[in-house]
Amino acid sequence: MNSVAPDQAGPPISEPNAPPISRGQRLLRWIKGHKIKTFLLVILAFILFELATIPFFGVASLKTENPEQTALMRQRLSEAEHEGKKLKITQRWVPFSRISRHLVNAVIVAEDGTFYTHNGFDWYEVQESIEKNIDKRRAVRGASTITQQLAKNLYLSTSKDPIRKLKEAIITLLLENSLSKNRILEIYLNVIEWGRGVFGVEAAAQTYFGKSAASLTLEEATRMAAVIPSPLRHRPDEDSRYVLRRQQIVLRRMSARNFAGSPTTEETQSKADLEQLLIPDDTSEVNMSLDSTDVEEESNGL
User: Fold this and answer.
1) How many CB atoms lie within 10 A of CB 185?
2) 74 lies in a domain?
3) pLDDT tens-digit map of 169-181
4) Domain that residue 199 falls in
5) pTM of the prediction?
6) CATH code of the domain covering residue 214
7) Which helix (H) or strand (E) holds 151?
8) CA distance 108 to 288
9) Rounded to whole angstroms, how far apart are CA atoms 136 and 185?
10) 149 domain-assigned
């Protein structure tokens, strides 16, 4: 009788009732065997998905079209609905030519001293911010430019996660490459938050001072610039320590840059007007560097 050697035996006979292995099962087996690769692929897919949501065409349309509702407005409406409250958004668009020059100058020195010379990012401020925050071991200073703040207000949220910051950087570059500096500033002043439901300079001027954005005085303009980092905690028409302290910082920066005396459409204020508003103060906050940017606390900053 012939016998077959073990090494010459044919392929094993599969059980006739064994179900075939599906693609899903194969995928699960691969995932179990390649956990690190799977994790990295998931992260990559998430990043690519987030980048795909960047509004490339939306930014380009801002050359000729004004944004109707921003991401921050939608976020505030959603927050109010979640809290069971009603929120009315107040905003009225005004062209750049009808915004007080005092306010334009005050906002620039308060939020982004090198706005007209950088490409969307102030790398000196970024370095200074990192060093100071590390030294203090907490976020005490921000470095977001006006263009970065606009990117966040228009399309993103108040979240501070790394993905949001990456999208913010890309949108910032798109804004800088698509729009003029004055157009960026015009949109910024018309959409940023100045209080609960108050968006844009015209709505803020009417709400707090009962006048148009074109008619804002030097004092009113510096008060409005003072509360941009924290518009839900402070009002420009209140005499709180925060508002008065930051107003003095803005005034001193304007004085150093010879911005006082820029006329509005209804009045002209002299250098003496600025000096009269300035109050002697030896605090470090007031004597800080002219181009430094305080840390943003609520919605219009980091």
Assistant:
1) 22
2) yes
3) 999 999 999 999 9
4) 70-115+181-277
5) 0.75
6) 1.10.3810.10
7) helix 146-155
8) 16
9) 32
10) no
